[in-house]
Amino acid sequence: MSKRIKSKYPGVYECKIVNRSGNSDVAYDIVFRHKGKLVWERAGHKSNGINAAYAARARAERLNRIESNEYISPGDMPTFGQAANKYFDIHLKGKPSEQNCRQLHKDYIEPHIGSLPLNKISPMHVEEIRASVKQQGLSAKTLKHVLELIGRVYRKAKAWGIYAGSIPTEGVEMPKVDAARLRFLTAEEAGKLLSELKKTSPQWHDISAVSLYTGMRLDEILSLQTGHVNMSAGIIHVMDAKAGTRPTYMNEEVKKLLTPRLKDRKNEDFVFEKREGGKITFISSAFKRAADKLFNDGVTDARHKVVFHTLRHTFASWLAQRGVTLYTIAELLGHSTLEMTKRYSKLSPDTKIDALKLLPTIVIPSGDDD
């Protein structure tokens, strides 16, 4: 490499090089101090339209980021694989989705960008992943989960201060997926499911009943600690939910199920635990066996299958059928927007008709036509 020559701009140097095509070119390097060390970066090449003034602006931008404590030097930049593993080990550890996300990363993301630094991954790389997933014949839903996982890793990396740039998935169109579950249980079907679970797994009977009667997500129930339950007020404090902490309410059936589980327990103890103690981190095969036996034989469309999330969907559907307002349902489910709850509006047609009956009758005065 030729000797760097100082330009008229502070911290900007020019260097004559031979590019990959074998042609002479000029490279522009910038230098600045970060954490007491000199950091050199290549701003670009003359053949690509870069000049000393552009390099000076790039250096000024680095200094501004250092000033606001947002700059991460190239040597400190983690690869996507490192950031993803940190995301799995810290943020997803023990959650039901951990294993699935690890598998998505291993199968579809790591081979493409796992070894690349976060600041070297562009929307083009994400498009390559999209093309690869589609070429394998996988569903739009799987592709959406892959792209969303990339975005979540980047956002968490920014929150942790190990990355400060743009998020490459923001330049990529997400696939449209109609994954809304259409299946909910009738009261008779719910009774059959709970009866089957009571015979095979009493604990998963109770977990399922809590979801049916409160609309809580599986991870919310498995994360439930004794101190989160206020039996006298009939309130469960759902902590760190998707849309933030919220209260949900117990009917007599839930109180009856939880009372023996809270007796002589410490506030930090989990209400539902593994046999050896500690938080449950997976869904029992007992639930899947019961659901498959009773409802899923021959069902190929995932939207019509009974899974654990069907219980939360059933809770909301029952309320809508009984005329409970969408706003109240959204509050109970912990939806961040009412848009997420609108699918239940079709289950309360009589309520809409009754609402129309509240309109006044308009009386048109009789008179001569002049």
Short description:
This protein has 370 residues and is α+β, with helices and mostly antiparallel strands. It has helices at residues 52-67, 80-91, 98-113, 123-135, 140-159, 187-200, 202-214, 218-222, 252-262, 285-296, 309-321, 326-333, 349-356; strands at 5-6, 12-18, 24-34, 37-45, 229-230, 235-238, 246-249.
Could you explain the architecture of this structure?
The chain has 370 residues and is of the alpha+beta class. It has three domains: 5-71; 80-171, Tyrosine recombinase, N-terminal domain (DNA polymerase, domain 1, Orthogonal Bundle); 187-353, Intergrase catalytic core (hpI Integrase, Chain A), CATH 1.10.443. 44% of the residues lie in helices and 11% in strands. It contains 13 helices and seven strands. It has helices at 52-67, 80-91, 98-113, 123-135, 140-159, 187-200, 202-214, 218-222, 252-262, 285-296, 309-321, 326-333, 349-356, and strands at 5-6, 12-18, 24-34, 37-45, 229-230, 235-238, 246-249. The chain has a four-stranded antiparallel β-sheet with strand order 1-2-3-4, with helices on one face. A three-stranded antiparallel β-sheet has the order 5-6-7. A hairpin with a 7-residue loop joins strand 6 and strand 7. Helix 2 (80-91) runs antiparallel to helix 3, helix 6 runs antiparallel to helix 7 (202-214) and helix 7 (202-214) packs parallel to helix 11. The longest helix is centred in the middle third of the chain and has 20 residues, at 140-159. It is elongated and about 80 Å long. The mean pLDDT is 86.
Please give the structural blueprint.
Blueprint: E1 5-6, E2 12-18, E3 24-34, E4 37-45, H1 52-67, H2 80-91, H3 98-113, H4 123-135, H5 140-159, H6 187-200, H7 202-214, H8 218-222, E5 229-230, E6 235-238, E7 246-249, H9 252-262, H10 285-296, H11 309-321, H12 326-333, H13 349-356
Antiparallel strand pairs: 1-2, 2-3, 3-4, 5-6, 6-7
